[in-house]
Description:
Layout: E1 2-7, H1 12-22, E2 35-41, H2 45-55, E3 59-60, E4 73-76, H3 84-93, E5 98-101, H4 108-121, E6 125-128, H5 135-144, E7 150-159, H6 168-183, E8 189-195, E9 198-204, E10 209-216, E11 222-227
Parallel strand pairs: 1-2, 1-4, 2-3, 4-5, 5-6, 7-10
Antiparallel strand pairs: 7-11, 8-9, 9-10
Amino acid sequence: MFRIGIIGAENSHAVAFSDLFNTPDENGAYRWPGYTVTAIGGHYPEENKKVYDRFGLALLAEKPEDMLGQVDAVMITTRDGKFHLEMAKPFIEANIPLFIDKPVTVSAEDALALACLAKEKGVPVCGGSTVKLAPAVEELASAVRGEKRVRGGTMTAPLNMENPYSGFYFYAPHLAEASFAVFGYDVKTVTAKRVNNDVTVIAEYDDFAVTQHFLDGNYLYHGAVYLD
Length: 228
């Protein structure tokens, strides 16, 4: 059995991931046989206990490090990305692969430190927003990879600037990562402007520019690619 630990039960993703791995379908079949969430921990003991009880897990960790030696991989779903680097470090040092939910970190310094440590130890680390894997995003990316010249593009997504989870960074990865998945990561310059609680970004590539609109409120996701 491949044992998975989750850190961050205050996030609904902890329940969703536990359900995906631990709950069989109506025929008794599991999505990924042999892969099971066995441990839960994080900053919110009451929420941890709920997940522990609901899925009958083997370990209710008082602190994340208690999972060392008890799990084969870890998923960090703690909402506030400012804690992700410190949570990830002991597991990377122990050569335990990680999935880190969005935002992976909330600063460039933490992101670089995390990437460098994972590279140094040779430990697989993945995660971020899963919006970049949505079929609609792949459809736009296919258009960009096509034969027609890209003239530009635009991406819009909802945001919540006033939250206790590092504000802008809590939801911003959904739009940023989707935009990079569509138009690529080779951005030359970035310009950003905040007006009230909305943020507009212009990401310039070699031959075109993309506008990213982070709108505070309950807005729909939207994306467009402009081709010759």
